[in-house]
Structures are given as structure tokens and as C-alpha cells.
Amino acid sequence: MMVCMWSAWRRGSVFAARLAKRDWPCSFSAGLSVRYRDFSTKTAPNIPGMEYQDAICTLNTLQTNASALEQVRRERCLPQLQLQAMRGFLERAGLTVEELDHLNIIHVTGTKGKGSTCAFTEQMLRSYGFRTGFYSSPHLVQVRERIRINGQPIGKELFTKYFWQVYGRLDETKDAHGGMMPAYFRFLTILAFHVFLQEKVDLAVIEVGIGGAYDCTNIIRRPWVCGVSSLGIDHTQILGDTIEKIAWQKGGIFKPGVPAFTVKQPEDAMVMLRSRAKEMRSPLRVCPDLEEYQTDCGSLVLGLAGQHQRSNASLALQLSHTWLQKRCLPETSFPSTSDENTEVLQGAVFTPSPIMVKGLADTEWAGRNQTLRHGAVTYFLDGAHTMRSMKACVHWFRETASQHERNSSGAVARVLLFNATGERDSAAMLKLLVPCQFDFAVFCPNITEAMASCNADQQNFNVSVENMLTRCLDNERSWHLHNSQVSNKGSQLLIEDSLPKKTTTTDTLVFPCILSALQWITQGRDPVLTDPVLPVKPSINAKAAPLCDASEIHILIAGSLHLVGGALKHLDAANYK
């Protein structure tokens, strides 16, 4: 069933009434019906011939079904129930925690950089010839990106096959368990374990979802090694509002006798990690700076851009080195954490092998400090969504964009495409972006396109369109405030006939989807964006003169991994078929 978005907005809310009085840059009438697919939340039957999209649409019901939402509400009050519930779902799916011991797991948590650390680690160990499994979140474009074998997302056929195996077992047993089905992330974690066991991987690199202590990945009993990347403030409603509380959660993945490594942390965080390691009797080490590793080929080169990736690479080296020691030298012992030994040890400085050196250089991790050049348009994509990661993003963008501009044959227009979700302080992040001197700041929700042709992978039923658009308007208002451009006349975008005169070098617009924003920003100059162009009002098109006149257009896409993923669906479609 297709639902007109404009009609959905107008249903009984003050916000909808406010929108009805305003104009959007893309017309919602005059022959254009902007729509979003309303995927049914009814479970698809498990019958022969079920296709990938059937599996994805059924998976999406786990975002919305009443039992899954009740789980989330109940477990926020009693988080210790999460692992108990996870164990029950795992057993209903036909798996046991004992089987997970055979996956030779590397378990990684952190606030920022845990995904990049996992990517470095997986690439290095795969370069040794090991068959690797890699579970990460969130996905950028397709959900099967979360579950990788040998660095590649599992194919649609494989995903579909294993999905129905796991879903079928859970569905068959739900009546005996009060109709309970696992929520979305919990199901995908079970599915990943099932895939890795069935595909007989030599090791599995498992990225924690949120936190650590009560994260559903922490059902793992005997990882081979654990890692903690950079800690900061995020997910405060779940993890706590201080660095100590967050570090307590992250240190919950430590296991008795299992070596653990951390990058250098703020003092309060390090004290808590040390306490947790002592409590869990896990030997904890701090990684050396990347410059301390000695190689025969000079400085280590990383496949991922950004200064902040250096600590992630050092952590990955320690994790890989320790895993290889256990694999090849199983008698290797690590000092225990006793009551007398409360100091955090320093990680060993060793000479990375040529395979490790090449692995670090070959690592790719889409959507993080990624640059794509399409003719006269260059995209700088980074899913930064915390204050710390946005500071790193700004440093990377200013440095990298300046290099590109020095090689430009003429004037360059800079554009920000931004969105933020959840409890993130988007106003504070936008303030960090002001010094980048953008010519335009463009805002849109994490909706890939106006006509979502069964794009179920990127559906989010937990946030309404109204809320998403409200957030965009709030972000635009914050940008104006940061640029000392407070106006009582309303949004420049929404009031076509009374646009205030431009008083700064940055103009702002809000679009209803990612594709419409990209089409307007690029003004037909990106040969990859071949979709039919949504009609845009003349007054909005008139604003685009600087984009048309510029020799090149540089676009920073940041604030949300989901925003970056939606952009990549259009900009790098060949890699997301």
C-alpha cells in the first residue's frame, strides 16, 4: 500500500497544520505525488520461494511489534534482563552459548572508532588467509552489510536462507513464550552467530551495539581478546550521563583471564576501566601510539583517513597480534589481574609483519572519512554524530577539502548536508561546523528518496516523518542562531514570497528527502544522479546561481550514519546492488 506523505503529515497535529501553511522546495501538487512505501507489519509466511525483500520486510516487523517494544521498555528499567532474554532467544533459535566459544571471537566496544578498529582487525587477519566473520552496526544501505564473510556482506540468497532458518524457529516457539519475538538488533545478532557457525569461520570480529555490559553481544562467554576504543558521551539515556558510568558499561565486556586492550582514555574513564578489569580479573593493557611501532618501511600507512584513526589502528594491531599468538602459540599466557596488581599494563611495542602493514593500508570502511569524486562534484562523507567525532570530522574535512581546492581550476562552492537523530545535541555539532565557511547549509531527514521502491533496508518505523521534519527545521534554526541570523519571519525555505534578504555568506534550505537535496545541490553536474529531478520552485532554483557558477562543488555529508548511507545508495549504487 502506497501512502501520500503529504496526507500523512496533515493527520491531526499542530505540526501538520503548521506545515500546511508553508511551501516546500519540491512541489507536492501539480502532478507530483511524493510518496513513501508503507510496509505492512504483518509477518510474511515462511514458504518456498521467499525473496530477500520478503525477509527484510519481515525483519522490519521486529522494529514495531508490540512484544519487541515491550521488551525495550521493560529492560530499560531492568537492564540485567537483557542477557537473560538473549540467552532464551538464542536457545529458541537452536543455538547455545557454548557453541559461540568455537567462533574464536574478538569483541570490541567503545564510543567512537569501534567499527573502524574492527575493520582494521578483520582486514589484517583476513590477509593472513583466515576465513573471517565480521558483525557490525548500523548498516549504511543494506542490512546484510552488518554480517560479513571475508570482508564482504553476505549475499542476498545466503541472507534469505539463514534468515528464514532463524526466524522460523523463533516464530514456531513464540506461542509457548507469550508471543515474544526478539527485537531488531537482538535478532540480527542471533542471525550473525548462526551465519558464522554455519559458514565455519576461523574467527568472528564482533562489534558491540550500545554499551557493553548489557548489550546482547555480551552473551559471549569466552572471547579470545577484547578491545575498547575511544570513550565519550553518547547514548546517555541508556548508558548514563558521565564518562565513569559509560566506562562502567563498556568494561562489562571484560572476561576472566581474557586479555583486553584500550586506547588512551580520559583519566576518569581509565580509572573505571581499570576497576572493571580488576573486578573481572581481566589483564588490561593500554595501546602504544602508532608511531612507536617499528617497521622496515617507514611510517605505517592507513587505508582510513583522519588523525583519529591512528589510535584505532594501534588497538587493531594489539588485538590482531594477541589473536595470532593464541592461534599459533596456544600456550601463551597473560598476566592475571590480582588484588596486588592494580596498574594498567602497557601494550607491547612490536614490529608489525608485512601482512599487517599491508592490511592496515588496504582497510576500507565506507561512510567514515570517505571521499568520492564525481566530475566537478566532490563528496566528503563522514557519519560523525557525537561532539568528539564531529571535531575530528571538521579537522579532516578542512584539511582534505583545502587540498582539493588548491588543485581546483576556479572558485569552489562549499555545501553542508546535515541531519542528526535521537538524543544527539545537533545544535552543538552544528556550532563546530560553522568555521568551515559553507556557502549553503542544507538539511533533510534520513529518507533516501521520495518514491521508495521497496527500499525496505532503510526503513525506520520508530521515528515518524513529522518528528524527522521537525528535527530538520530545528537544525536550520540552530544554524541561523550560530550565524547570528535570528529572524522572526520564519524559514527561508517555507515562505516562498517573503524570503528575507541574505545577510551572511551561508544560505539554508530544508528538503524532504536525501535525493531531492543532492539533486538541488549538484545542479545536474553529477553524472551519477540520473533519477528524474523533482520539480523545484523558481525562487529556490534562483538561489543556486553560486553552485552553477562554481568551478567545483564540495559537499560535506555528516551528522548521521543513516544520512551517509542514504546518500551512498545514490552516489555509489554499483556497490549496493
UniProtKB/TrEMBL annotation:
GO MF terms on file? ATP binding; metal ion binding; tetrahydrofolylpolyglutamate synthase activity
Its needed co-factors are: a monovalent cation
Q: Give the signal peptide as a residue range, or say none if absent.
A: 1-16
Q: For this protein, what is the EC number?
A: 6.3.2.17
Superkingdom of this protein's organism: Eukaryota
Q: Which key words are in the record?
A: ATP-binding, Cytoplasm, Ligase, Magnesium, Membrane, Metal-binding, Mitochondrion, Mitochondrion inner membrane, Nucleotide-binding, One-carbon metabolism, Signal
Reactions the enzyme catalyzes: (6S)-5,6,7,8-tetrahydrofolyl-(gamma-L-Glu)(n) + L-glutamate + ATP = (6S)-5,6,7,8-tetrahydrofolyl-(gamma-L-Glu)(n+1) + ADP + phosphate + H(+)
Single biological process term from Gene Ontology: one-carbon metabolic process
Binding-site residues, Mg(2+): S137, E207, H235
Residues where ATP binds: R368, D382
Query: Entry's PANTHER family?
Result: FOLYLPOLYGLUTAMATE SYNTHASE, MITOCHONDRIAL (PTHR11136:SF5), FOLYLPOLYGLUTAMATE SYNTHASE-RELATED (PTHR11136)
Report the protein's function. Catalyzes conversion of folates to polyglutamate derivatives allowing concentration of folate compounds in the cell and the intracellular retention of these cofactors, which are important substrates for most of the folate-dependent enzymes that are involved in one-carbon transfer reactions involved in purine, pyrimidine and amino acid synthesis.
| NCBIfam families cross-referenced by the UniProt entry | folC (TIGR01499)
Protein name stated in the entry? Folylpolyglutamate synthase
From which lineage does this chain's organism come?
Answer: Eukaryota, Metazoa, Chordata, Craniata, Vertebrata
